Every structure is written in C-alpha cells, then in structure tokens.
Amino acid sequence: MSGDPHTPTAAGPEPAAHTSPPGSAMFDGAPASAPSTERPELVVGAAFAGGLLAALILKRLGSHD
After folding, report:
1. Using alpha carbons only, what angle is made at residue 54 by residues 63 and 39, rounded to the nearest 5 degrees?
2. What residues have CB less than 8 Å from 43, skipping those under 6 apart?
3. Which residue of 7, 12, 40, 64 shows the fewest CB atoms closer than 10 Å?
4. How far apart are CA 60 and CA 8, in angstroms?
5. What are phi and psi of 49, to 5 degrees?
6. How far is CA 41 from CA 37, 51, 56, in A?
7. 1 contact partners, CB below 8 Å, separation of at least 6
8. CB-side exposure of 47: number of CA atoms within 13 Å?
C-alpha cells in the first residue's frame, strides 16, 4: 500500500469477460441499431416532439368547451 490514499489498489473481484445482457439486441458483438451513438440530438429531438404531441392530444381530450 502506498502513502497516497487515492491510489487504486488491486483489491476487489476480477472483472468478468464482456457479456451482453439478455435481450440487448446484440449480434456478434455489434449493436443491431444504435442511433443514439451516431446522432444523439436526433433522439432528443424525437423525444421532445413526441412529448409535445402527447401534450397536445391530452389537452384536446381534456377540454370541455
């Protein structure tokens, strides 16, 4: 153990081999479709547009006029 308390040590379990969780859409180690890694701004924009559309639909359904 070194004198520096922030130095990492070898304590702890050995990391397991990389495995993908069941149902993770992995085939031969490559993602089947990963739009968030290429252009994450499109995913954020689509989520915003979907939320706005849902809000407009709920507003229309909730009006009693």
Report:
1. 160
2. 35, 36
3. 64
4. 57
5. -65, -40
6. 10, 15, 23
7. 9
8. 6
Q: Which residue has the tokens 């397991």?
A: 16
Residue 27 CB-half CA count within 13 A: 4
Q: Given this model, what pLDDT does residue 41 score?
A: 93
Q: pLDDT by residue (tens digit) across 7-32? A: 767 776 666 666 666 665 655 555 55
DSSP state string for 1-65: --S-TTS--S-SPPPPPP-PPTTS-EETTEES--HHHH-HHHHHHHHHHHHHHHHHHHHHHH---
